Amino acid sequence: MAELSFFAGTMDCGKSTLALQMDHNHRARGRAGLIFTRLDRSGEAVLSSRLGLETPAIEVATDLDIWEAVVAHLTAGGRVDYLICDEAQFYTPGQVEQLARIVDELDIEVFAFGITSDFRTELFPGSRRLIELADRTQVLQVSALCWCGRRATHNARVVDGVMVVEGEQVVVGDTADPDHVAEVEYEVLCRRHHMRRMSSQAARAAAQSADVLPFDLDACPVPPRG
User: Fold this and answer.
1) Is the CB of residue 135 less than 8 Å from the CB of residue 99?
2) Binding site annotation covers 170?
């Protein structure tokens, strides 16, 4: 029986690498699949890993009906044994429901990969719907690390060197700003340093020496809310 599987984690935990590896393993056994992604760091219609591996993919635009795309492929004589769906946090809830329908009505395996929560520690709509509908949700075991060495559990957005907790939910980082308005980066932090808005840059700035980071929580107070 086909299943909808959701592989979740923070940035830097190997989600895209696992997606590429899973596609390779299935193809090596003679199975045929389709790869979907959205807003990959390397550009449109590509699934890429931070390790430098990449493969062509179908870009999941907001108006793409994944169910219709798969049915059209089958109707044209194509074969589909499984789907690889990367960056699934950016899919709409309706598109996630289409993935569930593909599993239930076409008996096609769907492997979705994504980040659960955004830089504000709020669930992405796509990830929330996947958690609600998936047959199984698996947290990836490759632990990303905060700058302090603890296991990273939260994603942080850093704009011009300053960690922010407000703004649009989706702003793609690791890309050049065409208008040179702001430099947007992301990094992963443990909960204590995310709550204290203490990114690696802020930690270095607060340190008396560049070689001694402020691990003492007294040096990283929780900022006032509001």
Assistant:
1) no
2) yes
Q: How does residue 24 score in pLDDT terms, banded at 50, 70 and 90? A: very high
225 alpha-carbon distance from chain centroid: 27
Look up tokens 């309706």; give the residue. Answer: 94
- Compute the distance between CA of residue 161 and CA of residue 181 in angstroms, rounded to an integer: 13
- 56: tokens are 């062509």
- In the predicted structure, residue 119 carries a pLDDT above the cut 60: yes
Q: Quick: pLDDT tens for 144-187.
A: 889 998 988 888 899 988 888 887 877 765 444 445 467 888 89
- 16 is in which domain, residue-wise? 4-139
**Tell me, what DSSP letter sits at residue 55?**
E
This prediction has a pTM of 0.76
Query: Is 172 annotated to bind ligand?
Result: yes
Does the active-site annotation cover 59? no
Please compute the mean of the pLDDT values over residues 22-47 and round it to a whole number: 92
From the list 59, 87, 122, 187, the catalytic residue is 87
Say how many domains are in the chain: 2
Q: Which two tokens stand for residue 190?
A: 């443990």
3-class SS of residue 106 = helix
* One domain for residues 63 and 109: yes
Q: Are 130 and 155 part of one and the same domain?
A: no
Please give the pLDDT value at position 142. Answer: 67
| Token pair in block for residue 46 | 């590509």
**Claim to verify: residue 134 and residue 166 sit in the same structural domain:** no
